[in-house]
Design brief:
Structural class: alpha+beta
CATH class of the largest domain: Mainly Beta
Strand content: 35-45%
CATH architecture of the largest domain: Beta Barrel
Radius of gyration: 34 Å
Low-confidence stretches: 1-92, 99-106, 178-185
Distance between the termini: 52 Å
Number of strands: 31
CATH topology of the largest domain: Porin
Shape: globular
């Protein structure tokens, strides 16, 4: 069964599938340029593929005015097209005039070339890819040889213009000199070739016919997929016909087939009929979807050190479900993020021996080492030099869980923690147990905290969830010798959602985080309390439309509903933002606004003694710049800064790229204003403490590095701040 679509109004696409051209003559007409380009041309191609390996061929053949599509003319080989396949600016190919492998005979030029055209894009195209430019370095050309080159150059020009949809150009070439070599040798002016090109009308797409065969035509669950391919065709009616766009459109449609259910889909036929008289193109494309593939058993290779059941749980492909390429990518990423594997490859078996109704899922892994020891050094303007030691044992001998020990020391904070993390269960939840000891000194106050935590956690691609019981013991010493001791037991839930276009250098998207907790103090009295904290970080791109930029920087109403109802699946189904590419980075001109908001509160009766690590302080590199680390708090009767029950903080930052030679560099200029406050009562949060500053951000190979100078409005001090990396 074959389903046939006639294209009317479709969208654009961006994939690429190179397809060479062949020109074939048709009926003779009285034009001044070669017969092979006089009449209608057919651009035909075939593509066969297995596991996304595609080869294509296209040809230009005659389209007689009578409607007879047959022709006995001998087609010209595609190889004679003089490297027109890369004839577009920015494609990474070597310009004709800069090819060092062509001829090293002369370091100078034997003649000049001047290209004139009313279309700037056409002039740039010819200036970059004209084959004639390669012969400028040949020093011994005589007059006859140069004129022969001009004859061949006209064919090359027509081929280049044909890739951009111009099939009826007017071309005039003039040689304004005598013998090139003698003129150059005499030291006089070089001969000049003047090429004048009027490209004529650009060919546009008149009609598109999409044909599908295979299981997709009679498998109801695939009908939406078929509709998306149809509506997403990349070269719709009315668009200019260009060779790259033609190849891109075919590739995108094929990928749409292979992305779900049909990994062995292939392009069986493609044809573009060009009519130069009307400057129009009629396209016909045929695909064979092949059979529907469903998941079968998981077959594992490379599992020796760790239990293979970990791979089965992380792969998460239900047997009997329809194949999706996204499932393979997500499974592979989960394996890599688990910490048990340094390499992973996941695919469905599409070999001829495989049964599509029960196709094995092939998983090949490279296991991580059993133990890892990491020494680290660092520096921050908040806490000075820092040293750390991390030890990880992926399969400790008692429970078989992962053991993680960390020691970190700087002038403000010294901390040691040990944790156990179980392998994931069938739903990817893990048991965790953690113990830590921390000493921190802020100004005249020293905090000694011991903490125990036991619970479960689930870390996914964009959502992290953790719930746990926590015990806290806190001892606070003041310089006057006084000491406060407190204990608490609490139940907590932490939820984080990230939707950034990059986890390293985001320029668009947002993240939100929520913390909820409740418990009771154990010392010096038993007092119930509740705790809540929320945070938001958004990037508003100024290179996009306002509505589009805001839509990416703010949660949608359905996102907020999913947050309120705990519908993690609803958020997981949201389409990911497109990651930055080399081309999008080059288009980054106006930069972005970065907005950060934080709020937190702890609710308990007045006079209740709460462990300090459950309360709030702010200030420093990552919060309110212009103030010292954790300098913003509540001042007690003795003048000491202590944590408070309520906290608000926010920041508005503008980043704009610095330009070198007209292109954005790896450096951004940064301007910002920060504000924050801590109090024991909501009404005491005003006035906010404000800091303003400016600096630079370097997009280093290991992550963003931001350096800035900030002035605290209330503190009346200037501070240097440095931030390394990006986390949320």
């Amino acid at each position: 069964m074959c389903v046939h679509f006639r294209q009317r109004a479709l969208l654009s696409a961006t994939a690429r599938l190179p397809c060479p051209l062949r020109f074939t003559p048709s009926s003779c007409r009285s034009f001044s340029w070669p017969l092979p380009l006089l009449a209608g041309v057919v651009l035909a191609g075939a593509c066969t593929g297995a596991q996304a390996q595609m080869n294509t061929a296209s040809e230009l053949a005659p389209q007689p005015a009578s409607g007879d599509t047959s022709s006995s003319a001998q087609a010209k080989p595609a190889a004679d097209l003089a490297q027109t396949g890369t004839a577009t600016d920015g494609d990474g190919s070597t310009p004709a005039s800069e090819d060092p492998a062509f001829s090293p005979i002369s370091q100078g030029k034997s003649f000049d070339i001047r290209i004139e055209s009313p279309d700037d894009e056409v002039r740039k195209l010819l200036d970059r890819h004209l084959e004639l430019k390669r012969y400028q370095k040949v020093s011994d050309l005589d007059d006859a040889e140069l004129r022969q080159l001009l004859t061949n150059s006209e064919t090359n020009i027509r081929q280049l213009l044909g890739t951009q949809g111009y099939f009826t150009p007017e071309i005039r070439q003039e040689l304004q000199a005598h013998v090139a070599s003698s003129a150059a040798a005499a030291g006089g002016p070089l001969p000049e070739v003047v090429i004048t090109v009027d490209p004529g009308p650009r060919t546009t797409v008149k009609q598109v016919d999409l044909n599908f065969a295979g299981a997709i035509t009679n498998y109801p669950p695939a009908l939406p997929q078929l509709g998306e391919i149809y509506n997403g065709w990349g070269l719709p009616q009315g668009d200019p016909f260009m060779q790259n766009a033609w190849s891109d459109a075919k590739t995108l449609a094929l990928r749409g087939l292979q992305a779900e259910r049909f990994p062995t889909a292939k392009l069986t036929d493609s044809q573009a009929v060009i009519d130069p008289d009307t400057s129009s193109a009629s396209l016909r494309i045929s695909y064979d979807s092949g059979p529907v593939y469903k998941y079968g058993p998981v077959q594992i290779k490379g599992a020796e050190r760790y239990d293979p059941v970990i791979i089965e749980r992380l792969t998460r492909v239900p047997r009997g479900a329809d194949y999706k390429q996204r499932d393979m990518v997500d499974a592979q990423q989960r394996l890599l993020d688990s910490g048990y594997y340094t390499g992973a490859f996941v695919s469905v078996d599409t070999s001829p021996e495989s049964n599509p109704e029960d196709a094995p899922v092939l998983v090949q892994v490279q296991e991580a080492k059993l133990q890892k020891l990491v020494f680290g050094v660092g520096f921050s303007t908040d806490r000075g030099p820092r040293v750390s030691i991390d030890h990880t044992h992926n399969k400790e001998p008692v429970f078989g869980w992962r053991g993680i020990n960390k020691l970190q020391v700087d002038k403000v904070r010294q901390a040691f923690s040990t944790a156990l993390l179980a392998p994931p269960d069938d739903k990817l939840w893990r048991w965790l147990a953690n113990a830590s000891v921390t000493r921190e000194k802020y100004g005249d106050v020293t905090y000694n905290t011991q903490q125990l935590r036991f619970g479960r956690t689930k870390l996914e691609k964009s959502i992290d969830r953790t719930y746990y019981l926590q015990y806290d013991h806190d001892s606070v010493r003041f310089n006057d010798g006084t000491r406060d001791v407190s204990q608490a037991l609490s139940a907590n839930y932490v939820w984080t959602y990230r939707r950034f276009n990059s986890q390293t250098y985001p320029t668009s998207g947002y993240g939100i985080g929520l913390e909820l907790g409740g418990g009771v103090t154990l010392q010096p009295q038993h007092t119930p309390f509740g705790r809540v904290a929320a945070r938001y970080l958004g990037f508003l791109s100024l290179d996009e439309g306002l509505r589009e930029g805001v839509g990416k920087a703010l949660p949608l109403p359905k996102d907020l509903k999913a947050v309120a109802t705990g519908n993690a699946a609803g958020l997981s189904d949201q389409p990911l933002l497109q990651a930055p590419t080399s081309s999008s980075v080059l288009k980054r001109r106006n930069g972005e606004l970065v907005v950060r908001l934080e709020g937190a509160g702890l609710y308990a009766k007045q006079g209740a003694v709460i462990p300090s690590n459950l309360l709030f302080l702010t200030g420093g590199d990552a919060t309110v710049r212009g103030y010292g680390y954790q300098d913003i708090g509540v001042e007690d009767a003795n003048g000491f800064i202590t944590p408070g029950r309520y906290m608000v903080a926010g920041s508005l930052e503008y980043r704009r790229p610095l330009f070198l030679r007209g292109r954005p560099s790896d450096w951004d200029t940064v301007l910002y204003v920060d504000a924050g406050s801590v109090a024991n009562r909501p009404q005491d949060l005003r006035p906010l403490k404000v800091g303003v500053g400016a600096g630079a951000l370097w997009r280093s190979p290991v992550g963003p590095v931001q350096m800035s100078v900030a002035y605290g409005i209330q503190s009346k001090k200037v501070r240097l701040h440095m931030n390394l990396g990006f986390t949320f």
